[in-house]
Amino acid sequence: MAGLAALSLALLGKIGYHSFGFSRSKAVESSMKIRNFCIIAHIDHGKSTLADRILERSGAITEREMQAQFLDDMDLERERGITIKASAVSVRYQLDGEDYMLNLIDTPGHVDFHYEVAKALQACEGALLVVDATQGVQAQTVANAYAAIEAGLEIIPVINKIDLPSARSDEVAEEMEQVLGIDALSCVRISAKSGLGINDLFRAICLKLPGPKGDANLPLQALIFDSKYDEYRGVIVYVRVINGRISMGQKIRMMGQQRVYQITAMGKFAPKTTAVPALAAGEVGFFVANIKALGDVTIGDTVTDVNNPAVEPLAGYRPPKQMVYCDFYPGPDTQYTQLREALERLRLNDSSFTFEPENSDALGFGFRCGFLGLLHMEIVQERLEREQKVQVVQTAPTVPYEVVLNDDTVKTIDSASELPDPSKLKEIREPMIRANIIIPGENIGDISKLCQDRRGVYRKTEYIGPQRVILEYDLPLAEVIFDFFDRLKTATRGYGTLDYNFLGFKADDLVRMDILVNGQAIGALSLIVHKSKAESRGRAIIRKLKTEIGRHLFEVPLQAAIGSRVIARETISAMRKNVTAKCYGGDVSRKRKLLEKQKEGKKRMKQVGRVEIPQEAFMAVLEPGE
Amino acid sequence: MSFATPSALHLPLSPRAGEFYDLPHPTRQGAISDIAAIYIHIPFCTVKCHYCDFFSVADHLNQAPALLTALNTELRLQIQHFGSINPQTIFIGGGTPTLLSPVLLQNLMNMLHQHLGLSALNEFTIEANPNTFDAERAKVLQAAGVNRISFGAQSFVPGELLALQRDHNPQSVAQAVQFARDAGIDNINLDLIFAIPGQTRQSWDYSLDQALALSPQHLSCYSLMYEPNTPLTARLKAGQIQAAPESLEISMVEHTHCKLTAAGLSRYEISNYARPGRECRHNLHYWHSSNHLALGPSAWAHHDARRWKNVPSINRYTAALLADAPRVPIVEMEHLTAAQYAGELAMLQLRLRTGLHWREFQNRTGIDAVQKLSQVLQKYDGLGYLEVSPQHLALTNQAMIVSDTILADVLAAFG
Predict the structure, then answer these.
(1) In sequence order, which residues have a C-beta less than 8 Å from that of residue B244 and are 6 or more positions away?
(2) Pairwise CA distance, residues A100 & A92, whole Å
(3) Is the CA virtual torsion A161, A165, A170, A173 positive or negative?
(4) Cβ contact (<8 Å) for B39 and A581?
């Protein structure tokens, strides 16, 4: 059955490719004015709804075709055979007798994808900065708005949801002026849901945003701002042509990756896939070039012509950098090879995480995985379980460290077990971030204390409106990935938001702490910790272990140690009685099942020496030290 | 013997709703079955004791004649299926079998004599409540070949009996034992319970003294178990009673062992003590996983890696067997894999002080236990819990009180 299904799917894919093909359209008329823009918004502030409204009001899709949140939907059915999520849509609009081509470029919305956002911004000349009239400015809005301003984009401030009873549009306009230096009077007030104010917004887009610069006669320079993996076509590359022209059949070179391909298909999303023979300077679209894996394409790379190459690539190319690491081990009903295949499949459409085989004495065979951030880690884990149907045991997240050896060589390590012998170490450096935390004014005390407890260095406080402030702190990333979001949310009853930028590595008084169970160090529980925090963290970890590890027939000492110095200790008392008094003919079956249940529990345990440690115990390092 | 294949493990051939499993086909065909033991469950009691989770009902004695008729039919069907049966042991348990009137007891005895071959029989036990036993019943039983009586004495302290909701008084035990001996039944077991709420070490010692004064051949000393869905457990959860402190219970176990050993009764199983040669042979069949049939409502049988259970309802049991097309009303059926069978055999044999004999174990299961258990042996090496020789493996006396922990490891080792 499975084979048949796969076959028919493959056929469908082929048929789909040829018969649906791409509907033909002429290249953009030269008379047409182009506006390339993106929407910047905090989650739930209405980005998707606004995108839908723009598509609908421009007539790009009919009302019958209109389905909520066209841009944001991954459902195959809804995409009518287009198995890719549109990251850029082109729509036409007429204003005062002029024809405009509006290219809406999607940006990833969350804190871990700064780099991707920055690249998408570079593909635009303008940005709609959308703020919810009931919620006001949030940390990510600020971060992305600054990024847009830095990239030289023209900003159109938009206040959305103005028709809600709890809307406080004037206040929010003031906030935008105060925080972002945008004229409060220039805000376009809309309701993306009802369409209220949308025509004003179109007017602003057409008249306020500049058209693309660039020269179609120069050698090709196209910026890759996104890529998607399609099962039948391979990688679909989204580009913004800066200079020159890219056309069907052209031989191209990725200037960063130094790979050469030939374009086999290209087009735009209008919003249906529409084939075009070429894209000229200023235009946005996609191409397919028989590229097998997402890893072969790097966001931010420059595409040029093989025969008539540009002298240099566009500025700003760098590969994604993993800042949070954890181990994934196969869960109870998952095999190692299943997990590996799942990771490989997932990497086909998310090239920004890494994985390497890992062998832990405690947890067996698994993978050390690197992510752009904490949220990225959670997304990958969820996709593994939901899409790939594998069970994953995840260890506590850690950050990479730079270690400087006595001979001044610098090495990056991503787990405590890689730490060289202390006698060979000159210093350990940890990653630092600059955090912008937007909170209600009444929480300044709590959050300042939280930041100071986390070794934060205060930089400044800014008021946005009467009730809210931005706190700026420099913090060690390790302190932020550990229980920081939860505490921020709890202390601010969910109102606090956080955004951060990576600053670099900084040396501090960091030590390796080992956790010993029955005298034996558990590698998976070792961690790098600031000396001032070692004792409280150590105590919290072994307290947690005490609740997770069952009683054995002997006492089990638990210790936290720095080198040979024990800084915390607990003991699990011995099991003294565990017996079934009666076991006769009628009891055998039930008794065996009871023991089998214990046995199933044992399967999920790792034997370390004589001690059985449940997998949950390996999350003990997440226990807060306070 | 044929084992279930592991893939079939979760796919039992379950009957349709309201129907019953078929008896498993005997693996060895022949006129004479290989059944070593017969258990018969008589589910009647005068009151239901608060700790008891056996299937028994109070005040339904009027159903006894129908039950005996149904038992007769079940026995007939079993023999039709398995061939003639010459058990080495018979055990009539309950419930309180001696609640049956002497006439009904006689009927039950006649039925067994009529259907079973008794030439190999070497132990015939019946359970009795001290206050439902008398000279007349003793005589009926002795005449039918019963040679062992197991009395539920539990405690000799009235307050402790009350805590358990036992309906006899301590004096009735001596009286009942005397009836048995007078009738010529000299193999006597007393069941005792310790770690009863409110019990002290002294009062437990007193009960042991009283029991020993009756010179029993066998003593079963159970620590009180709080079984799910019993009134006692409900009272414990409601905070009306307090379980005995662990340290007290442990000291009672140790005291029991010392005292009974000194009195000439040796511990041959976790909770069982006997004079030499007086170990309960019927129960030894359970602990060696011999084939045995079990008749009556809720009774569990075992035959060649299959275990099955009759319906736990007097009405449904009698209805099925008194129907025009009578059926043995089997409601649970297990077919063990080789690994399960081996694990179970080890779990049972290790309850015994004699333990598990490597070679016999391999002969019966086809599995090399020395190799399978090597990690377990290593884990417990030097801790004083395991007695290991080239011939056998056994739990030490010290290990018995934590046997479930060790047995879970053993079971896990067989996979």
Answers:
(1) B194, B195, B196, B197, B199, B224, B252
(2) 6
(3) negative
(4) no
Three state DSSP letters for B143-173: HCCCCEEEEEEECCCHHHHHHCCCCCCCHHH
What is the widest separation between alpha-carbon atoms in chain A?
94
Cβ atoms < 10 Å from Cβ of A577: 16
**Strand A410-413 to strand A401-405: parallel, antiparallel, or no bridges (unpaired)?**
antiparallel
| Amino acid of residue B329 | P
Cβ distance A579 to B223 less than 8 Å, yes or no, reads yes
Burial, A406: exposed, middle or buried (Cβ in 10 Å; 0-12, 13-18, 19+)?
exposed
Contact between chains at A586 and B379 (C-beta distance less than 8 A):
no
Q: Give the mean pLDDT per block of 10 residues along chain A (626 residues).
A: 31 28 42 87 79 80 54 39 53 90 76 66 90 88 81 92 94 90 91 93 95 92 87 88 95 92 91 87 93 84 94 76 87 87 83 85 84 83 86 86 94 88 91 92 95 95 86 94 86 86 92 93 88 92 91 94 94 93 93 86 75 80 60
Q: What is the pLDDT of residues A83-139, one digit of tens each?
A: 234 568 888 899 998 999 999 987 665 555 666 677 778 889 999 999 999 988 888
> What does each C-alpha distance from B404 to A185, A553, A581, B385, B395 come to in angstroms?
77, 11, 10, 12, 11
Whether residue A531 lies within 8 A of chain B, CB to CB, comes out as no
* CB atoms B412 and A602 under 8 Å: yes
d(CA A187, CA A176): 9
Selecting from B334, B348, B404 the residue whose C-beta is nearest the C-beta of A579 gives: B404
> Of A585, A598, A599, which is closest to B300 when you measure between CB atoms?
A585
Q: Which two tokens stand for residue A444?
A: 């300044």
- pTM for the model: 0.66
Q: What is the pLDDT of residues B10-59, one digit of tens each?
A: 444 556 666 899 998 876 656 677 899 999 999 998 888 888 888 888 87
Q: Do B403 and A580 touch (CB under 8 A)?
A: yes
Q: What CA dihedral angle connects A608, A614, A619 and A624, to 10 degrees?
A: -100
* Cα separation, A411 vs A421, whole angstroms: 13
- Nearest Cα neighbor of A109 from A36, A41, A37 is A41
Measure in Å the smallest separation between the Cα of A607 and chain B Cα atoms: 10
Query: What is d(CA B171, CA B318) in angstroms, rounded to the nearest whole number?
Result: 37
Q: Does A592 touch chain B (CB under 8 A)?
A: yes
Residues 6+ apart with CB under 8 A from B80: none
B54 touches chain A (CB under 8 A): yes
A541–chain B nearest CA distance, Å: 26
B344 shares contact with chain A (CB less than 8 Å): yes
Residue A599 is nearest to which of B271, B299, B412, comparing CB atoms? B412
Positive or negative CA dihedral for A16, A17, A19, A25?
positive
Residues B383-396: b if buried by 16+ CB within 10 A, e if exposed: eebbeeeeebbbbe
Residue B185: both structure tokens together:
């039944």
Look up residue B308 and give its two tokens. 């099955």
